[in-house]
């Protein structure tokens, strides 16, 4: 059985099973490093956990593709035709959904080219990574408790009073949006706050409403960071 698995690729270019496993694991580790760096350095408003997972899974699938193609130009053109057909038929908005489609295409290509060992190995590693994402919830971030939107009627230069209030209630505050209004000279502000005591969020909102120059305040509880 072990001998069959090691020699289970019957395509035009056989693949060494040990090198295949090593390549897939190395691609997984490299993708993990890139994903960690992305999570650490990302500061924008739009954050997607599925995109982080895709950064890990794609190098594994690309490695499997290269092992299957084995410098075969005919297979490469066939793979391009399959991708073009899928892209024409459907548009997937989620990057991880697209990666799932890519995974089944690559595994089908492996089976169709008689590279059975590559198909079994690739399927096992891919399923293992997907289950790892599901069980560990890798890519989830929780940096802020509250999203606070404030309409400030006073000039932007007089925001120090509001900043002091936020510093008293929040360990960390980030002004994600500041937009001036031409009609009354005020400012629309949006903050993300990591509160010292999340249970006192309503107290913070009440104190902000009591400030001179605040016309409207809305607060949304921020759960796991996701794509906006």
Helix content: 55-70%
Structurally, the number of domains stands at 2
The low-confidence parts are: none
User: Strand order, biggest sheet?
Assistant: 2-3-1-4
Q: What composes the largest sheet?
A: 4 strands, antiparallel
Please give a structural write-up.
The chain is of the alpha+beta class and 228 residues long. The protein has two domains: 2-136, no CATH class; 146-221, Alpha-Beta Plaits (2-Layer Sandwich), CATH 3.30.70. The chain is 55% helix and 15% strand. It contains eight helices and four strands; from the N terminus they run ααααααβαββαβ. It has a four-stranded antiparallel sheet with strand order 2-3-1-4. A hairpin with a 6-residue loop joins strand 2 (170-180) and strand 3 (187-195). The chain is elongated and about 80 Å long. The mean pLDDT is 79.
Note the main attributes of this structure.
single chain, 228 residues, alpha+beta, Alpha-Beta Plaits, 2 domains, 4-stranded antiparallel β-sheet, 55% helix, elongated
Topology, element by element:
Layout: H1 2-6, H2 17-41, H3 49-69, H4 73-89, H5 95-112, H6 116-136, E1 146-152, H7 160-169, E2 170-180, E3 187-195, H8 201-209, E4 214-221
Antiparallel strand pairs: 1-3, 1-4, 2-3
């Amino acid at each position: 059985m072990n001998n069959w698995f090691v020699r289970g690729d019957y395509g035009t270019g056989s693949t060494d099973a040990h090198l295949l496993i090593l390549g897939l694991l190395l691609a997984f580790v490299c993708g993990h490093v890139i994903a960690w760096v992305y999570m650490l350095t990302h500061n924008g408003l739009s954050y997607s956990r599925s995109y982080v997972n895709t950064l890990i899974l794609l190098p594994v699938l690309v490695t499997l593709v290269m092992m299957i193609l084995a410098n075969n130009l005919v297979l490469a053109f066939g793979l391009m035709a399959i991708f073009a057909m899928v892209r024409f038929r459907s548009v997937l908005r989620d990057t991880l959904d697209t990666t799932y489609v890519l995974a089944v295409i690559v595994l089908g290509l492996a089976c169709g080219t008689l590279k059975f060992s590559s198909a079994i190995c690739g399927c096992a590693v891919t399923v293992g990574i997907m289950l790892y994402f599901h069980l560990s919830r890798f890519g989830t971030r929780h940096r802020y408790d509250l999203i606070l939107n404030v309409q400030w009627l006073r000039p932007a230069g007089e925001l120090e009073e509001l900043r002091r209030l936020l510093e008293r209630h929040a360990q960390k505050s980030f002004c994600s949006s500041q937009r001036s209004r031409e009609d009354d000279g005020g400012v629309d502000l949006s903050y993300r706050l990591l509160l010292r005591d999340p249970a006192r969020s309503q107290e913070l909102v009440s104190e902000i409403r009591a400030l001179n120059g605040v016309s409207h305040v809305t607060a949304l509880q921020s759960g796991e960071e996701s794509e906006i």
